[in-house]
Please model this.
Amino acid sequence: MYLRIYRKAIRHSKPFLNYYLQHRVAKGKEDPDRLSERRGISSVARPNRDVFWVHAASVGEAQSALTLIDALNTYLDKSRISFVVTTVTVTSATLMMKRLPDNAVHQYAPIDHPDWVRAFFDHWKPNAAFWMESELWPNMLRLLKRHHIPCALVNARMSPRSYKRWKKIGSDAAQMLGVFDVILAQTQEHKDWFDDLGAHRCVVTDNLKFSSDPLTYDEKELADLKKQIGKRPTWVFASSHKGEEELCVETHESLLKAYPDLLTIIVPRHPERRDDILKNLEGTSLNMQLRTQKPDITKKTQVYIADTLGELGLFYKLSAIAFIGRTFSDDGGGGHNPIEAALLDCATFIGPNYQNQTNLVEQMVAHDALEIVPDKAQVAPTLERYFEDTVARETLRDNGGHFADKKANVIKDVLFELEPLFLKINHVYRLPVKR
Model:
């Protein structure tokens, strides 16, 4: 019933959807030069080979998608395959344009209007589809089933709230999940939820983010920034959301007496928020600086806002201590991936609201590879403790690195479970991977 209502409503919503896209363009959330892709229209020709469609909504999923693509290029004949990778956000598109291999092309995902989805399918004619994590679109799934396209939901997860919501729609949820040949869940709890909702086949393969390569960074830029900073105590707040920039400034102000040369680096999750961030921080007397306006860090710089795309790896590598964003934010939080910081030698901390990363966080905490800071009031004391205790800081850093190394083989479990799907496409697509 719910699917019928959804499909009927969206079929008649094209004027609203066009307005919605223009509104997002005005907000900087869509690329005006590539808006046609959101309507399923591509200016890129389909390669004359098998095309694998990989869909990843935003940056977090995109990192996992890159891991999967790199592995498939390693184990399959690269000359026989190509990838069309769809994402939704401008930030993830920028990442993909920098990181995709030469047999892959990025496209913005079409909005789930039947005409626009059909245009996408008619052009790309995917031989297989791999969707990352949790985003499900009814009309896209309907066409995958109609065209008998082998497909998998990889690194699948679901929040408790989403599970309850999906549970309410009963058979409609089972109909959508039943499109996937296999669902590769991050945890046993996620598997239980997918099974309960009607998934045909669900297997636990752990979190693919464990197998991600470290974020890249420019070696020369790192050397230059290290020279500018010298021996100043430095910390980075990564992937900040609304409300967390104020926390960073308050923390800095409370530590000024003990550390007059303290440097706070803020890397917003969405750099286009820069104007709002500056407006929200107008009350501080601290010397603030936007990287896009003045890239060099001087002795006077106290709060450095890295409002650029694709440089998080640089600032992790620059800082001995990293706090993970969207865990103290005004929106209720959810968290981002702490493995990225651990892979780049940071002592890593996370706030109390990490519900989107629960399993990952719990595993890291169990291995003393991550510390949870229970509330905003404890951020400054935690920083002070780890600035002073070099041994504790280095132990937390080393434990994080060791944990990440031990978990790096998750991709092999993923490929093992995907092999039957590839053999359905072509018998030559045998993945030489064993558990």
